[in-house]
Amino acid sequence: MNETRTTGAIDEVLQQFEGYRRELCAYAYRMLGSSFEAEDAVQETFTRAWKSYASFEGRASLRSWLYKITTNVCLDMLDGPQRRARPMDLNGPSSPGSPLPPPQPDYVWIEPIPNGLAFGADPAEHATAKDSLRLAFVAAVQHLPATQRAILIMREVLRFSANETADMLTMSPASVNSALQRARATMSKVQPSVGDDYDESDEKQRQLVDGFVAAFEAYDMDALTTLLKNDVALSMPPFDLWISGPSHVADFMLSPGPSACRGSRLVPLAGANALPAFGQYKPGERPGILEPWAVVILELDADGIGGLNFFLDTDRLFPLFGLPPELHG
User: Fold this and answer.
1) Residue 277 belongs to some domain of the structure
2) Whether the predicted pLDDT of 24 surpasses 70
3) What residues does the RNA polymerase sigma-70 region domain cover (predicted)?
4) Residue 125 pLDDT more than 90?
5) Domain harbouring 30, CATH code
6) What is the pLDDT of residues 150-167, one digit of tens each?
7) Is residue 48 assigned to a domain?
8) Among residues 79, 101, 121, which one ends one of the domains?
9) Are 38 and 47 within 8 A, CB to CB?
10) Exposure string (b/e) for 104-137, b if CB count within 10 Å is 16 or more?
């Protein structure tokens, strides 16, 4: 970087970078499946971009140049066989009385991302990006080799042209199109054919969410099961078990371990993965104090709730979502 560059010019460059932070974070999250790694990737992108900005010279748009750097950062981070997953990607459903298996490391799991890290203030941007941030889509993308993953997201989510994508990946357009076809074929096999279709403006769906909160806080399993779809799945990362079906969910929630959630309170969040989300606090050992238990994300459509996702890594997730360390009451 030219040492004579003024502080004002430096600030201007950094402000230009910042204007792309959220969309780059959303891109890195789709690639990596972790909001923490996505934030790290964007920070590394800005570091690399700053160091090489003098050689940029505007030969491409700043946006596509930053995406190229972000892609390289993500590909470096994905240099290994491990892919993140959801519990239902790893094994079949458990019976409600199954003992909890040992927890798995955080790098095993698809992690949630707060809407505020991924979306700007433009509602149109939110509407076009939300489907590709859903948990099911992000989990399906992890089945792709890293370069195919980048190509699919660039072409079908971000709508870069084949030529732009080829330039960012130092490939030929023909190679990009061939890899895209392979990626589409894999996605057709691993992505659920019917997923959640949450629309926050839909009154019926808002009533479903309100009904879930009321039933869960009352720990009324009869009321709760009326809101669930027949193929509902309950999962609790970092444990690799999951429960399928309304009656099994109710039995699991009333079993000795999970029943400690009776008396919980759900604190609404601004959303996660473009889905309704809550911070769950449950009674602890100290009288009158509710302790962090989970970030809860609902998957639903107009027909009911199809996914109950309890992410239990509160030490990392509650600060990420701006949740307090305890509640009184």
Assistant:
1) yes
2) yes
3) 17-79
4) no
5) 1.10.1740.10
6) 999 999 999 999 999 999
7) yes
8) 79
9) no
10) eeeebbbbbbbbbbbbbeeeeebeebbebbbbbb
